[in-house]
Specification:
Helix 3 links the parallel strand 3 and strand 4. The protein has a 4-stranded parallel beta sheet. 44% of the residues lie in helices and 20% in strands. It has 97 residues and is of the alpha/beta class.
Length: 97
Amino acid sequence: LAVAVGECGLDYNRNFSSREDQIRAFREQVKLAIELKKPLFIHEREAHADLIRVLDEVKEDSGSSGELLLPTIVVHCFTGTKEEAFEYIQRGYYIGF
C-alpha cells in the first residue's frame, strides 16, 4: 500500500544524473502525486531554487483544472539555509533534518 510519492526530488550535491534529467523526472513525479492525491516525500540537496520553481510551475499548470493543486509535501534531507527553511514552512511544507 503506497502512502506517498517518493522519495523524489533534486540532489545537486551528488549529481548522479544531470540537473536537466533530475528536473524532468521530478516534474513528472509531482504530477503523479497530484493525480494520485498522495503526499510528496521530497529529497532536496543544494537545489532549493529549482525545486521551488518546479513546484510552482506544476502548480500553475494544474491550476486551470480547478483541482487541488499540490499535495502535502515533506522535504527531508534538508541542509539549506534558515531562509530556505522558512520559505518551505511558509508554503506549508514540512521539513526534516
